UniProtKB/TrEMBL annotation:
EC number: 3.2.1.26
Source species of the chain: Triticum aestivum (Wheat)
Similarity section: Belongs to the glycosyl hydrolase 100 family.
Transmembrane regions listed in the UniProt entry: none
Name this polypeptide is given: Alkaline/neutral invertase
A Pfam family the protein falls into: Glyco_hydro_100
Biological function: Invertase that cleaves sucrose into glucose and fructose.
InterPro entries assigned: 6-hairpin_glycosidase_sf, 6hp_glycosidase-like_sf, Glyco_hydro_100
Length: 564
């Protein structure tokens, strides 16, 4: 994660604020309304049906329950694999590492006016000294937030959601250019004035980041986390406040704005997501598309149909979801048969009936892919745009695709098959490869600009990131492949604490602590805890997983313009 150092100068336009002037602060004292009666069975109705029923006046609460419920008619919790949570809990033996991990996570908490607000990137577990960065990064805090929710500590997450929502309302400028209203910060930090006894916030919307790229994923993670908070606590009142409803609308309006795009995917700059340095992910990266899809679905569940301005945005979300799911499942999906079809593609097809719609040149298929692709398995490729297909595997995008049900059940199973078949390549000795394979030589020079941090099998260029284990575990539980999760967690437990919780590992198998990896990394700790808690109680998966919407599998019909 890249950011300005702790001593970086604060931009003058609006980087500090006294939050007493904002009405949002009143919500911090409101206790969640815990819903203990959500015992409805899962409803298989489509998004369109749910949207229409909401319009008929059923209200957002019933709307969410009918769609999201993971509770059996008998009242007991169940996991998505059909295994009662109680039986899993009885067979679970806590690892001694868990207690140490919780202690380390709590030491990373930063407070704002006496209330815990988030976790900073790294804190020395023995001295409590802040290491490198003192910012709270939005994407980095997500696994920490989930850990606190699963542990029954929602107030920390509520504070974070409200303060980042407040920051969304600031004027955001990079040089002389103003960012969109919906943009969320990449990070923020608490500035303490001991003389005045006042805490203020300073936010970074990309103006301090390396490369000066605004985060495209922060708003998506915020919506996903708001839904996780709502699902975990049963407290709908936070999401239903006018401030939160407006925040969701601003993010959605920014993403759904019409322009020159001919695809439903989002066009992005390099370095706009977890891979926040130049790595050739510009265009339509799978990570952003999967998060976009998941945030669209979460927003549809959180928006109140009767609120002003929501009806139109909800209709646009439903339309975009159907287009996006079709596009991703059709053009981003790659398995053995699809690879063989691309290998035989004709080019320069100019018609409505073109098979090679993006004019992908078969000679652009990299040699490594033919040996890597198993007969059983598949995945969503990294990027698809005109005459370009990035065939690399990206872990975050594929795991989120499973959790959001962007992947069909068959595709989700194929992704897990691929992980099993290519364990040495994608997991190795430390889960989980952020991408595969690494780029090197002239390609590395051209793609990364000779980035000394992203050398082959290091950092974002094929490095192994322990934080990703929570996403892998969630995907495993949802697909019923718990053995994969347990095996990966066992590998992590053997080294993480001994190596002082590194940010990432280097090497083709992930054997070596990263050459510039920061120790005592908070999201490495939190990712492990979330993975362990989900295995202990698979019902936790409900806060980060969405069921498949059957209306997104339309019958494909031949175009009216088709001719023999």
């Amino acid at each position: 994660m890249e950011a300005a150092g702790a001593g970086a100068a604060t931009p003058s336009h609006a980087s500090m604020v006294d939050t007493d002037d904002f009405d949002l602060s009143r919500l911090l004292n409101h206790r969640p309304r815990i819903n203990v009666e959500r015992q409805r069975s899962f409803d298989d109705r489509s998004l369109g049906d749910l949207y229409l029923s909401a319009m008929d006046g059923r209200g957002a609460g019933g709307y969410m329950d009918s769609y999201e419920s993971m509770y059996s008619p008998g009242g007991g919790l169940r996991s998505l694999t059909g295994t009662p949570a109680s039986s899993t809990r009885l067979s679970f033996e806590p690892h001694p590492l868990v207690g140490d991990a919780w202690d380390a996570l709590r030491r990373s908490l930063v407070c704002f006016r006496g209330q815990p607000l988030g976790t900073i990137a790294a804190v020395d577990s023995s001295s409590g000294e802040v290491l490198n960065y003192d910012q709270v990064f939005v994407r980095d805090f997500v696994p920490s937030a989930l850990a606190f929710l699963m542990n029954g500590e929602p107030e920390i997450v509520k504070n974070f959601l409200l303060k980042t929502l407040l920051l969304q309302g600031w004027e955001k400028r990079i040089d002389r250019f103003k960012l969109g209203e919906g943009a969320m910060p990449a990070s923020f930090k608490v500035l303490k004035d001991p003389k005045r006894g006042v805490d203020t916030l300073a936010a970074d919307f990309g103006e301090s980041a390396i490369g000066r790229v605004a985060p495209a994923d922060s708003g998506f993670w915020w919506i996903i986390l708001l839904r996780a908070y709502t699902k975990s606590t049963g407290d709908h009142t936070l999401a239903e406040t006018p401030e939160c409803q407006k925040g969701i609308r601003l993010i959605m309006n920014q993403c759904l704005a019409e322009g020159f795009d001919t695809f439903p995917t989002l066009l992005c700059a390099d370095g706009c997501c977890m891979i926040d340095r130049r790595m050739g992910v510009y265009g339509y990266p799978i990570e952003i598309q999967a998060l976009f899809f998941m945030s669209l679905r979460c927003a549809l569940l959180l928006l109140k149909p009767e609120a002003e301005g929501n009806k139109d945005i909800m209709e646009r979300i439903v339309t975009r979801l159907h287009a996006l799911s079709y596009h991703m499942r059709t053009y981003f999906w790659l398995d053995f048969h699809q690879l063989n079809d691309i290998y035989r593609f004709k080019t320069e097809e100019y018609s409505h009936t073109a098979v090679n719609k993006f004019n992908v040149i078969p000679e652009s298929i990299p040699d490594w892919l033919f040996d890597f692709m198993p007969s059983r398995g598949g995945y969503f490729v990294g990027n698809v745009s005109p005459a370009r297909m990035d065939f690399r595997w990206f872990a975050l995008g594929n795991c989120v695709a499973i959790l959001a049900s962007l992947a069909t059940p068959e595709q989700a199973g194929a992704i897990m098959d691929l992980i099993e078949e290519r364990w040495e390549d994608l997991i190795g000795e430390m889960p989980l490869k952020i991408c595969y394979p690494a780029i090197e030589g002239h390609e590395w020079q051209n793609v990364t600009g000779c980035d000394p941090k992203n050398t082959r099998w290091s950092y974002h260029n094929g490095g192994s990131w322990p934080v990703l284990i929570w996403l892998l575990t969630g995907a495993c539980i949802k697909t019923g492949r718990l053995k994969i999760a347990r095996r990966a967690i066992d590998l992590a437990e053997a080294r993480l604490a001994r190596d002082s919780w590194p940010e990432y590992y280097d090497g083709k198998l992930g054997r070596y602590v990263g050459k510039q990896a920061r120790k005592h990394q908070t999201w490495s700790i939190a990712g492990y805890l979330v993975a362990k808690m989900m295995l202990e109680d698979p019902s936790h998966l409900g806060m980060i997983s969405l069921e498949e919407d059957k209306a997104m599998n339309p019958v494909l019909k031949r175009s009216a313009s088709w001719t023999v």
